[in-house]
Design goal:
Elements lengths: L6 H4 L5 H15 L6 E2 L11 H14 L15 H12 L11 E4 L2 H7 L10 E5 L4 H9 L5 E2 L4 E2 L2 E5 L17 E5 L11 H14 L2 E5 L25 E6 L1 H4 L7 E4 L5 E2 L2 E2 H12 L5 H10 L2 H27 L4 E3 L5 E5 L6 H12 L1 E2 L1 E2 L10 E5 L4 H12 L2
Parallel strand pairs: 1-15, 3-6, 3-7, 7-8, 8-9
Antiparallel strand pairs: 2-10, 4-5, 9-10, 11-12, 13-14, 14-17, 16-17
Helix pairs in contact: 3-10, 4-10, 5-6, 11-13
Bound molecules: D-malate.
The site of D-malate (MLT) has 6 residues, from loops.
Length: about 400
Amino acid sequence: MYQINDNYLKLPGSYLFSTIGKKVAAYSAANPDKNIIRLGIGDVTQPIAPSIIAAMHKAVDEMGNAETFHGYAPDLGYEFLRDAIAKNDYQARGCNISADEIFVSDGAKSDSGNIQEIFSTDNRIAVCDPVYPVYVDSNVMAGRTGTYDPKTETWSNVIYMPCTAENHFVPELPKETPDMIYLCLPNNPTGTTLTKGQLQEWVDYANKVGAVIIYDAAYEAYISEDNVAHSIYECKGATTCAIELRSFSKNAGFTGVRLGFTVVPKELKCNDVSLHALWARRHGTKFNGAPYIVQRAGEAVYSEAGKRELKAQVAYYMNNAKTIKNGLKDAGYEVYGGTNAPYIWLKTPNNMTSWEFFDYLLENANVVGTPGSGFGPSGEGYFRLTAFGNYENTVKALERIKAL
Ligand code: MLT
C-alpha cells in the first residue's frame, strides 16, 4: 500500500495567494456589479516590451523551419542567455560570476521551492518574518520545519528573524545558529533593503558559521538607492556561501511567460561536495528549463532597446508606488516600503487584524490587497498593496481608500 508524504498534511490552509483568489472570486460572484481593483498578488499588468515581443516572434518563426528548429534546451539553458546574464547582471557590477554558474529555469518561484531538495532535511532554516511564504511552505513539504503551533502561527524548527517597525524591518543576525538562511532583498512584502555593508555582515556570518544563504533577488530592478547591492555577489566571500535566485517576472513582465535563473557558484562547497554539481544533476533530470522561444525573449531583455523599454516599465510601476504611498500618508496611514520595491507595507488602521482589514477593504472599497499575516506572524497588523496595477486603477483604488 503506498503512503503519501504526510508533511503536506502539516500545511495549514491553502497557499496565501490561492486563499485570496478564492475569497475574491466568492465576493465577486456574490456581487457581480462591483468593480474590483486587484492590488493583491504581485502580478504585472503592463504588456511585454516591443523588443522582447519581436525576439519571441523571430524565435517562433525559427521553430517552424527545419534549419532553425530547436528541440530540448540544454540542461543549464542556452549559452546566449547565460552569457547575457553573466555579462549584464554580474560582471558589469564587478561580480565574479561566469555563464556556466547560471542555471536557467522557468522561474524563481519554482527554484526557491526546489532548491531545498539538495540540502539535508536535518538542516535548520532561518527566515525573515515577514517574507514570501514559499520558503517556509516548501520546507514544510520537505519535513524540515517541525511542528506547527496554530496559536503563534510558527513552526518549532524554524528560526524566525522578526522584521518590524521597531528594527526598521531589518533582520538581525539570529541568536541560534541556522544551516540555511533565506534572504529576500528587496524584501517581499516590506520593501526593505540592506546596505552593502549590512549585507556583507550576513555573508561574513554565513561563512563563519557554515550556513548557506538562499538569496532571492527577484526585485533587484526596483532598487533606487546607490548603497544597496543588486546581487549578493557584490559582497566579498559570497561565492563560498550563497545561492542567488533571479526572476524575469517583475522586471520584464514574464509572470505568464515564465523565466528565471539560479546562480550556484562553483566555489560553493559543503564538505568538499560541489553544490553546483548537485544542482546540475537536478537540472538534467528534473528539467525545469524554459523553452527556446522564452530564452530568446530573455536575451532581448539585455538588448539596448530592451533595457530602455524595461527601465520605463519599472519607472511606471514605481510611479504607482509613489502614488499609493503618498495617497495613504495623506489619508493618515503609517506606510513603509515603495522606495526600492514595488510593494507598499502599511499598518492596518484601528488595530484591525490583517484579514479583518482585507475583508473591510474588499467590501467597502472593492480593493484587494494582501494580509500581512500571510507572510509570517510578525506581519500581523500589517497589509501589502502592490504597485503592479495599472496607473488608472491605482489612482481609483486610492480615491476609494481615502473616502473610507
Ligand atoms: C507576490 O505577490 O508575493 C508574488 O507575486 C507571488 C509570486 O511571485 O509567486
